[in-house]
């Protein structure tokens, strides 16, 4: 959470920082600010609101300089106000911070800061501690400060008497750095670096990077120079913009056929699933007695689909655990438990901490991550990258379906490794998986029809979504999507559970979205739909194109999904639900890509 940027070089830093903060805004958008270090001193401009508000402020004040740091905030410590916006300044130190300093109260007391701080943030306390230790040697002050901090941090620091230099240090929260051609840049993720270069490196934890106009130096905490491990962004850089769509969410929904192709094709050899590129040994897939998926939000919903697939097709037990709850339920994981961590950003701290815990228990681990080189990828034994490209909209769409694509591949490889399927069965499964992109193209061609259907819930206060088995898993994700971008209260319910309480809430004012894609569950699901219809609910039904419906019944709203084999129906149904959420948000005039209170990368527990 929070976007951080720093630039030093020959260009005007304020322009570079404002452009970069716009690209990083999806990490948090409560307030924004920049600081410029120049001969005349340090100048800070910050305000509550979006980067566009900061841009207006800058247009008024016309700050100038060639070395600066900037921040876009997702509030943790202290409310949303100008004083709490970053950068923070104490004495000769100006700093921006992403993360949480857990012991900021003790530090406030220890260094007698009470009454000297201007904000309510833990970040300003860090600036004060750096100032306390600063006696002309930035490395020493940073080193001594870092040893006092408990918590997570990505810090970019400028010292008044160190012109042209930006220092960076981190624990858990990410910082990447690169050379721009005319200077050096750091950022919380590669999104802000891609306009300059595709070569970058991740600042290692507890190392100090010093950015200067003519290069970057890296030191470990004992003061020894460290080697920089350069990486290459392998995104198609042209994917970074909105590509003519009004919002990233629509663009990312529309990209799904292509990115699913790019995720599965490199992992199919001779028609079979292949993870040799990832060097995943078959023994890890054949030897485990159970699987534990750890993830949050949408990624966890992908895990639920994976659970249904693996349990049904491989016959081993799969737990899907909310990463944020993992540690608090005395997790039972051991060397016989394969842990699969799923994360788009690869930085979600709950998932990262749960993964580290599981590894300490001896569990083999695979992570499914979208962002190359992210913390979760580095913390796991094996990593499978989804090739979804940059996902900028806060609501996750293409990351989810590419995570599903990887889970289908993993299921098939596991079946192979365990000798469970005949060649024919494996070949049928893989052929069906390869049909997914073209099936999604068919769904996307009908987006105007879906837009029209979304009108049936536009003015609803509450929406219920019902289904069984895999359909229920899809609806959990559909419901999350709807509430996060449209602010409509929505609940997904296993339809058989309705009669155990929730049906009391069903009236003619509560539209119901029902998904019926699983042959073996169809008649039960249709009975549950009749139960809500008879309480007055209007039902929007998503069902396979070939299913016959009783003409005598009141099917006012039906969307026909292109037919796939049942385990794959998740794919077209999910895309329809994504589009419904998108159009409701759009038609309500909301900021689709940046829903209130949310941030794309969740690096606080
Ligand atoms: C979904 O639309 C949300 N953005 C959110 O639930 C997200 O999936 C969750 O925070 C996990 O993020 P990750 O995939 O980056 O770990």
What's a concise summary of this model?
The protein is α/β, with parallel strands linked by helices. The protein contains 18 helices and 26 strands.
- For this structure, what is the CATH class of the largest domain? Alpha Beta
Counting DSSP E segments of at least 2 residues, the number of strands comes to 26
Any guess at the CATH architecture of the largest domain? 4-Layer Sandwich
Main pleated-sheet profile = 8 strands, antiparallel
Q: Can you identify the CATH superfamily of the largest domain?
A: Aminohydrolase, N-terminal nucleophile (Ntn) domain
Count of DSSP helices? 18
Q: Determine the strand fraction and express it as a percent band.
A: 15-25%
Give me the CATH fold name of the largest domain: Glutamine Phosphoribosylpyrophosphate, subunit 1, domain 1
* Shape annotation: globular
Description:
By secondary structure, the chain is an alpha/beta fold. It folds into three domains: 3-233, 4-Layer Sandwich (Glutamine Phosphoribosylpyrophosphate, subunit 1, domain 1), CATH 3.60.20.10; 240-442, Glucose-6-phosphate isomerase like protein, domain 1 (Rossmann fold, 3-Layer(aba) Sandwich), CATH 3.40.50; 447-587, Rossmann fold. Helices cover 34% and strands 24% of the residues. The protein has 18 helices and 26 strands. The chain has an eight-stranded antiparallel β-sheet with strand order 3-2-4-1-10-9-11-14, with helices on one face. A six-stranded antiparallel β-sheet has the order 5-6-7-8-12-13. α17 links the parallel β24 and β25. The longest helix has 23 residues, at 423-445. The radius of gyration is 25 Å and the shape is globular. The mean pLDDT is 94. The site of 2-deoxy-2-amino glucitol-6-phosphate (AGP) has 14 residues, from α9.
């Amino acid at each position: 959470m929070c976007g951080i940027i720093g630039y030093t070089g020959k260009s005007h830093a304020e322009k570079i920082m404002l452009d970069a903060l716009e690209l990083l805004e999806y990490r948090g958008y409560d307030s924004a600010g920049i600081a410029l270090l120049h001969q005349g001193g340090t100048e800070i401009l910050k305000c509550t609101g979006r980067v566009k508000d900061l841009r207006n402020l800058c247009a008024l004040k016309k700050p100038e300089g060639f070395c600066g740091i900037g921040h876009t905030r997702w509030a943790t410590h202290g409310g949303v106000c100008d004083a709490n916006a970053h950068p923070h300044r104490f004495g000769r130190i100006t700093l921006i911070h992403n993360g949480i300093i857990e012991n900021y109260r003790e530090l406030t007391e220890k260094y007698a800061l009470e009454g000297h701080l201007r904000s309510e943030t833990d970040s300003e306390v860090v600036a004060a501690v750096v100032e306390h230790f600063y006696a002309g040697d930035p490395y020493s002050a940073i080193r001594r400060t870092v040893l006092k901090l408990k918590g997570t941090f990505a810090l970019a620091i400028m010292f008044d008497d160190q012109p042209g230099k930006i220092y960076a240090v981190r624990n858990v929260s990410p910082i990447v750095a690169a050379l721009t051609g005319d200077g050096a840049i750091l950022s919380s993720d590669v999104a802000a670096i891609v306009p300059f270069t595709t070569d970058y490196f991740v600042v290692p934890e507890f190392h100090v990077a010093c950015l200067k106009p003519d290069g970057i130096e890296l030191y470990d905490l004992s003061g020894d120079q460290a080697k920089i491990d350069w990486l290459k962004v392998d995104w198609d850089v042209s994917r970074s913009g909105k590509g003519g769509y009004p919002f990233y969410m629509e663009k990312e929904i529309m990209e799904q056929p292509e990115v699913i192709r790019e995720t599965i094709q490199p992992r199919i050899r001779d028609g079979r699933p292949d993870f040799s590129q990832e060097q995943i040994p078959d023994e890890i897939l054949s030897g485990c007695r159970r699987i534990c998926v750890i993830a949050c939000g949408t990624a966890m919903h992908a895990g639920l689909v994976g659970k249904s697939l693996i349990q049904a097709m491989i016959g081993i037990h799969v737990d899907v655990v909310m990463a944020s709850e993992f540690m608090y339920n005395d997790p039972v994981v051991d060397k016989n438990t394969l842990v699969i961590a799923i994360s788009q950003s690869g930085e979600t701290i709950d998932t990262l901490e749960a993964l580290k815990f599981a590894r300490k228990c001896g569990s083999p681990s695979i992570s499914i991550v979208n962002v190359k080189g992210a913390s979760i990828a580095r913390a796991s034994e094996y990593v499978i990258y989804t090739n979804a490209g940059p996902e900028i909209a806060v609501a996750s769409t293409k990351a989810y379906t590419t995570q599903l694509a990887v889970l289908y591949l993993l299921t098939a490889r596991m079946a192979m490794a365990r000798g469970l399927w005949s060649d024919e069965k494996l070949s049928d499964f893989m052929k069906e998986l390869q049909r997914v992109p073209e099936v999604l193209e068919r769904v996307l061609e009908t987006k105007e029809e879906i837009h029209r259907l979304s009108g049936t819930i536009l003015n609803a206060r509450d929406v219920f979504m019902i289904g069984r088995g895999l359909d229920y898993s899809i609806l959990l994700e559909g419901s999350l999507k709807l509430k996060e971008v449209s602010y409509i209260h929505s609940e997904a319910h296993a339809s058989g559970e309705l009669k155990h309480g929730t049906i009391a809430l069903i009236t003619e004012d509560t539209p119901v979205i029902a998904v019926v894609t699983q042959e073996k569950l169809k008649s039960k699901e249709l009975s549950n739909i009749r139960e809500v219809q008879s309480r007055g609910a209007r039902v929007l039904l998503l069902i396979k194109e070939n299913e016959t419906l009783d003409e005598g019944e009141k099917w006012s709203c039906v969307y026909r999904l292109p037919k796939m084999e049942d385990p794959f129906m998740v794919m077209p149904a999910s895309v329809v639900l994504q589009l419904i959420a998108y159009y409701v948000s759009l038609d309500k005039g909301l900021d689709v890509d940046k829903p209130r209170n949310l941030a794309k990368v969740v690096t606080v527990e």
